[in-house]
Amino acid sequence: MPDTISTGNAGLDIILKGGLSPRRLYLLEGAPGSGKTTLALQFLREGVRRGEKALYITLSETAEELAAVAASHGWDSGEFDVFEFDSAAEIFGEGRDQSILHPWEMELGETIRLIQEEVERVKPKRVVFDSLSEMRLLAQDPLRYRRQVLALKQFFSGRDTTVILVDDMTGKADGRDAHLHSLCHGVITLERLTLDFGAARRRLQVQKLRGIDFIAGYHDFTIRTGGLQIYPRLIAATHHGEFADEVTPSGVQGLDNLLDGGPLRGTSTLLTGPAGSGKTTIALQYLHAACERGEPSTVYEFDERIGTLMARAKAFGFDLEKHIANGTLCVEQIDPAEISPGEFAFRVRREVEERKARMIVIDSLNGYVAAMPQEQHLILQMHELLSYLSQKGVVTLLIDPQTGLVGAMTTSLNISYIADAVVLLRFFEAEGRVRKAVSVLKNRGGAHEDTIRELRVDAGGIRVGEPLSQFRGILTGTPEYLGIRDPLMEDRDRER
Length: 496
Description:
Layout: H1 10-15, E1 25-30, H2 36-49, E2 54-58, H3 63-72, E3 81-84, H4 108-122, E4 126-130, H5 132-139, H6 142-157, E5 162-167, H7 178-183, E6 186-193, E7 201-209, E8 218-224, E9 227-230, H8 253-258, E10 268-274, H9 279-292, E11 297-301, H10 306-315, H11 320-325, E12 329-333, H12 341-354, E13 359-363, H13 365-370, H14 378-391, E14 395-402, E15 421-430, E16 433-443, E17 452-458, E18 461-468, E19 471-472, E20 480-481, H15 492-495
Parallel strand pairs: 1-5, 1-6, 2-3, 2-4, 4-5, 10-14, 10-15, 11-12, 11-13, 13-14
Antiparallel strand pairs: 6-7, 7-8, 8-9, 15-16, 16-17, 17-18, 19-20
């Protein structure tokens, strides 16, 4: 016999390090609407795919309702046996007056006997029992209920059968049954979280699993056509890969000089500054250069529409459409109200592991904050994601808009200490004109300039000027240039 059997869900199998131990009793618990029935159906369908007999015992849903759930995912409930008590009167013979036998009209002992007879008849390898709340209702007494659950466990223990007990957690004041947890070999909990705005978030946690070193903690998931899409929690330390320690130039000499040739492979660079200061344009410059080198790259757009981004790139002479057409570049529009951090990390992993992406651009961190319902964990989530990308040798560009255009500015996420390099952009005033300045505050990957240079962005692309001195008010957020005119750049047409 195999050490583990697949649950029918690839994400859950990863969390369980391969699957479930066979011939054991498991508890699948969760509030109504959390996805228990869908996951249970995936478990049975996997057994059918492997040529095993499968049985769904339902006290809470009719066969028609179960068939409707299966059909919504493109499945056929006729692939496995379904035993429902609304049609179980036939088992008592023809002498019964009623044509439909409801669970609450039966004695609990009789219910258990019918279940055992059906199992003896079908001889399934996989069984789903849905749900325990009806058994609590029939028992009416907690001690009697526990005895019957123990009797079920003992009944299945001598058989080559893996059983999942489904519990909607409505029979307990606190929602949990500690005695039931102790009886089962493993416990999987599904949760549905209703946020103030946006789609409901769902997450999964393996409470216990004897004999298996599973991935603990919460794992985000969604219910899509085809079943539960589970996103295992990212653990960066398990994803190390070999890569060359080299710089990634932008193609603009002045910009590359700021970072001693460009960002190193496996590092993250934070581009921070007020709106309109040129953060996205600098990211596009690095992105275009990577695509020209034939390196697969991906942009995640939280704030700006893809169409706007493409128009902006075209205005600067970056032909991103060519790279999208040949598969080098992928641009994904992200709706912060509809995505969880776990799903976002899964998408990034898919780009890196399947498309072999070498550069990732996240525009912007404000959108990422909006996708996170529990902001106290956001730094940890981003730290793990950046560590993963570093392990894979990916160059990551993070765009962080600061609140305010002039004066003291703040950011929604203080992530500067996590990033390997920080590029700061500022507006400054000189000779009655508003100009832009760029400087590098840190670069863990190597040397960097400590000068402040002027940044110009026009139809011809990016220009970085000579080092500027004689600044006042840099750290206050309202820098003013008091030096001579010569180092300042003028429009291109004036230079001809």
